[in-house]
Amino acid sequence: MDIPLESLHRKKIASFILDLDNTVTEWNSNHLSPEIRGWVQKVKGAGGKACIVSNNSDQRVRGVAQVLDIPYVCRAGKPRRRAFRRALELMGTGPDQTAVVGDQIFTDILGGNRMGMVTILVTPLAKREFLGTRITRQLERLVLKRLKGPGCPEL
What we know:
Helix content: 40-55%
Order of helices and strands: HEHEHEHEHEH
CATH topology: Rossmann fold
Number of strands: 5
Oligomer: single chain
Strand order of the largest sheet: 3-2-1-4-5
Strand content: 5-15%
Distance between the termini: 19 Å
Mean pLDDT: 87
């Protein structure tokens, strides 16, 4: 993950709520890349915390969270605030010290923004994803293009 931990640390952000599918792992996979494992270890090594928040089932999320040795919230119902509040509680941190990292605007980013947290939109790890997500991506492209303004390259 190419997330500038040093600049976030200067802003007192040391905790991270992480989406699962296409952010930490590819969709419907439990494989963790060395890069993701290393990034989580770097966060923890610097005294930071991380928690997975996913709309997936307990069975799907638990295995990845155990490998990374971080807490998790499953069946989150993102972008509702409940799961984000639970993640903050599990990490013992507040919204002003936490960033949300995810690949979807209408779940991860919207949920984090509703809680007043810093949000980081990442490029999905893979093109393979849930059918509903593929449909939502079309709307996300329109939103991103609008946010970036005229002359925005094709996303």
